[in-house]
Amino acid sequence: MYSFLIGPAVGAVIGYITNDIAIRMLFKPHRPYYIGRWRLPFTPGIIPKEKNRIAGAIGAAISDNLMNREVLERTLMSDELLGKLRDAINRYIDTLSTCNETIEQFACHLLTGEEMAQLRDNVTDEVTTMVNTNLTETKVGASIAHMACEHVVEKTRNSIAGKIGADVLVEKLTVPLERHMAAHINEVLRDKAPAMVSTLVGDATDKFCKQTVSAFVGDHKEQLDRLADNVVKLYCYVITSRLPHILGAINISGMVETRIKEMNVDEVEKIILNLAHKELRAIVWLGALLGCIMGTITSIF
Fold first, then answer.
1. CA distances from residue 256 to 54, 65, 75, 252, 259 in whole angstroms, order as listed
2. Is 128 helix (H, G, I), strand (E, B) or coil?
3. Could you give the residue ranges of the DSSP H alpha helices within 138-165?
4. Measured distance CA(213)–CA(110) in Å, rounded
5. What are the helix (H) ranges across 211-251?
6. What three-state secondary structure class fits 145?
7. Residues 38-82: pLDDT tens digits?
8. Whole-number Å distance between alpha carbons of 172 and 118
């Protein structure tokens, strides 16, 4: 009776041990061993020996099958994700509608006081320069003079209606008067406009910065109600038009390959064992089962 059990037992032990050794040899030893110039077979283990090749294969597999354009675009533009993005924006706007901080105080959460002051100065200077350039380099003086003269001519005609020769005199005086006025208006704009515009822009900037966030949100509620949809449209446009360029710049395959190559064998072994511990132990016990079956067959025959 006991002799009948010896075969299955020995077969099970051998199957268990051989499979366990085979799995351990996937990772160990971590480095090659030599006797003189002769390298011992199976050193290092299969994974340490082929780590670079495995890294390249994993990187290519992830890039081609798991993180390719179609998969990422489908995921990033799913109805669920777009809905979450829209809801997040609307919730944030609702939060801002109750914020009693001034716009300047709120901006200081993102910028330092020095950066905020610099930003205000830059905005004021840019707007002032733009307005002054348009006032001095365009035909503003001529336009103002023309409108003023038209108004004066109209009023004058009404007051001298019916007087012979008056209309002709008015027409003769209008052209030189308009030119004279345009020249003086342009001169005034060049001399006085910069300081005046700078003051007006500075005052407007100060008023804007001292406004509460809740008041700003309330004043622009209609535009902000459309903000979520506009952001989602912009997001979708960026994903559909720029995703190939982003993927090309990131080079997922190369990034994964480089990261795996940088890992030491201990890290790789730990990751694989954590992911496939149950499956690898099942292989070991399967070896014991097969050994037991083979031992039983041998005992019978």
1. 11, 13, 20, 6, 5
2. helix
3. 140-159
4. 15
5. 213-219, 221-225, 227-250
6. helix
7. 888 878 888 888 888 888 888 888 888 888 888 888 888 899 999
8. 54
Token pair of 283, please? 């292989």
Along the chain (301 residues), what's the average pLDDT of each consecutive run of 10 residues? 74 89 86 84 84 88 84 89 92 90 87 83 82 70 73 66 54 68 73 78 86 90 86 90 82 86 85 85 89 82 65
- How far apart are the C-alpha atoms of 45 and 33, rounded to whole Å? 11
Length of the chain: 301
The CA-based diameter of the chain, rounded to the nearest angstrom, is 147
Helix axis angle, 79-96 relative to 227-250, nearest 10°? 130
Residue type, 106: F
Cis previous bond, 29, omega within 30:
yes
Please name the residue that has the structure tokens 């979450």: 84
C-beta of residue 124 within 8 angstroms of C-beta of residue 202: yes
pLDDT at residue 127, rounded to an integer = 84
